[in-house]
Structures are given as C-alpha cells and as structure tokens.
Amino acid sequence: MKKQDIKTIMSQKKSGKPILGCFPLYPPVELFSSMDLFPIVLWHLKGSISTLLESDLHIQDYACGISRELVQFLLSDYGKMVDGIFSYNACDTLRNLPEILKRANCKRNHDIPMLRMHVPQVNRMHSNPNVYLADEIIQLIQDIENAFSVKFSSERFFQTTTYFAKMRELCKAAEKLVAEGQLSFCAFCEVILSGNFLPIEMQIDRLSSLISRHKTSVLSEKKIIISGIMPPPAPVLQAIEQSGMRVVANDIACLKRSYAYSPEPSDHPTTYYIDYFMNRFPCSTLLYQTDSRTNHLIQMIEQSDAIGVIFSGEKFCEYEYFEFPYFEKRVKDMGVRTMLLEFAVDDEIHLDAHVTRVEAFSEMLDQCK
Asked: What SS3 class is residue 23?
C-alpha cells in the first residue's frame, strides 16, 4: 500500500462510505460494494508498515509476514480509518486473528463491527455445501444491514457484479500482453495489487490505461511461470525480466488465482457466490481445492511451453510449503527447471542474494533452449 492508496481510502471515507478491511484474499467484495461500503483487501501492506512492534505483542515471529503486517496495519494509526473488519476461514493463522483484533481494538476504544462468514472446506465432489454457503451469505447480508444501517439491493448487486466481471476480464487481457512480452510483469503486478485499495471504477480505469501502454518487444524464449501466495518483490521481478526471462503465466494467489474466474453478473448473491467458490481457480488457502491444484499447474506449463518455474515462497506459509516439494517433483519429471525463492517479512532490504540466484537461474535456462 502506497501513500496515494491511503489518500484514495480517505477520500472514500470522507464521501460517507464506511471502510471495510477484508481478509484473506477472496472476500465477497461485490456484495460489500453494492451495499455502499468501500472494501479494501488487506494484502501487500508492506509499503505502509515501518515496524512490527504492535503486531509482535500479539503474533508470534514465526507467523507469516502477511499476518504480521495485517495486524500491525490494523493496530496502527492507519487502522483507525477502518470502520469494520470482515474475515472468513483460511489458514490457521488468519482464521484466529479476528478475536485478537477485537480485543486489541476494544482496548484502543476502537470497537468496530467484526463481520465473518464460513466457507465450507469440503470436497465438492463428495458433498454439497451449497445450502450452508447460501445461509452464510444471507446471514452476512443481514449482519451488514444491522452494522452499517444500509439495505441490500438486487439491482445494485447486478450492476456491481458487472463491474467486477469487466475488471477481471481486463486483468486477463493485461496478463496475455505480459505473456506476449508486450507488458512488464513488474508493472502488471503493481497495478493489480493496487486494486486492493481502489474503488472498482478506478481499478477498471487503471487496467485500461495499463493495457493501452503496451508495446511490441523482442520476445525472450526463456519462458517461465511464477507461483506462490505473493509475487517476488519488485527488485527481484526486475531482475527476472532484465536477465531475459519472460513470465508467460502465473499461479500467484493475489494475481491469477484472484481474477482467473468470475461468475456471470447476477442479482442473486447466493447463486453468485456458490458459483464463485465452486468454480474459482484453485488456491492452497481453500483446502477443498487442493486436489485440483496440481493438474492446473501442469496444464499451465503445457499450454505456455514454459521451461522454468519460480516458486515464490512466503516464509512460514505452511499451506504453500506443503505443496512446493510435490510440485517441484512433478515439474522436474516434465523436464522443467525450478527454483524456490523464500521471502521473509524483512527481506525487502536483503534482496541481493535473491537477484544473484535469479541471474544464475536464467543462465541455467539457456541450456534448455
């Protein structure tokens, strides 16, 4: 999050929209936006965090940087601009944060609404959680209405889902230009990640502007895929592109996994979110999808003709690290080279070793062409 993002959030607050801080990555932002809230997805907060002193009072230092930065942000002065918090069940660390944040905010005289829903983590092939999930959505709507004195509108929900469908299509169009070598993957990441803190109309405008800036460039044959919860930091992404590698696809949670699937616009939130959670792109943070993760990654490699895969690991993210060894084995069996980069909460200022490894990996890929 950058200073400009903070200004955007504050301008929305001044316009009368309650600010709803959301985590983890896939909250029902369409619903919140349709009910005149301004949802911000509390991810990629490093730019607004200069210390973890407050977070360290509540979260162990062996938790992932995403959770520590999230808690620090919400318990800092920035957190005072948030009028409510929404969460759903994901990893063990994040699902236990609401109670911590609730108690800490009460002590700070900042007792704000805490909205929650439960996404059933059962295999959809063996059980049908649709009725339960529909009840969760209905209850969430009632909780929003009670907490913020707003009313749900089916017409407004249809309009909002139309906007979000357009935004995700623009994300995929920009991703295609990156794969073709006509857009920088680093610039692409910056625009996508900034969307977590922007109104949907501004997201659409920025993506349209990004796409209009594309240019024809010499295509590198060193095609790679990047996978992980977060993309590598900008200096590492720049090193990837400067060393002659081209990111032809990504399997990153806050990128591809977030925009790859969008349900058809609808005026029925229960139908919309049943579709969304059943058919969305697989993510390790949604346990019911883990069985299909491998096939999606293999298919992505085959369709893109990638010769290398970079796994971007968030230190202490147990969900991703359970899968990395298996993925690496499967990918190597295909003759595809792999590299695992691990990033800790304080690695932004210790990136030279990662840059050196990226350059070495690029030289290794020369042998594969």
From this structure: strand
- Looking at 153, 177, 204, the residue that finishes a domain is 153
- The C-alpha atoms of residue 65 and residue 44 are separated, in whole angstroms, by 10
Q: Are residues 246 and 350 in the same domain?
A: yes
- 176 shares a domain with 262: yes
Question: What radius of gyration, in Å, describes the C-alpha atoms of the chain?
Answer: 20
Do 288 and 163 share a structural domain?
A: yes
Q: How many domains does the chain have?
A: 2
Query: Is the separation of the CB atoms in 170 and 188 below 8 Å?
Result: no
pLDDT in tens, the chain (369 residues): 777 888 889 999 999 999 999 999 999 999 999 999 999 999 988 878 888 999 999 998 889 999 999 999 999 999 999 999 999 998 888 888 999 999 999 999 999 999 999 999 888 777 889 999 999 999 999 999 999 999 999 999 999 999 999 999 999 999 999 999 999 999 999 999 999 999 999 999 999 999 998 776 656 779 999 999 999 999 999 999 999 999 999 999 999 999 999 999 999 999 999 999 999 999 988 888 888 888 899 999 999 999 999 999 998 887 788 888 888 888 888 999 999 999 988 776 779 999 999 999 999 998 875
pTM over 0.90: yes
Q: What are phi and psi of 36, to 5 degrees?
A: 65, 30
Helix or strand (DSSP H, E) at 38: strand 38-41
Token output for 286 = 């949604």
Domain residues for the domain of 364 are 155-368
Whole-angstrom distance, CA of residue 114 vs CA of residue 129: 24
Cα dihedral 300→303→304→308 (10° resolution): 60
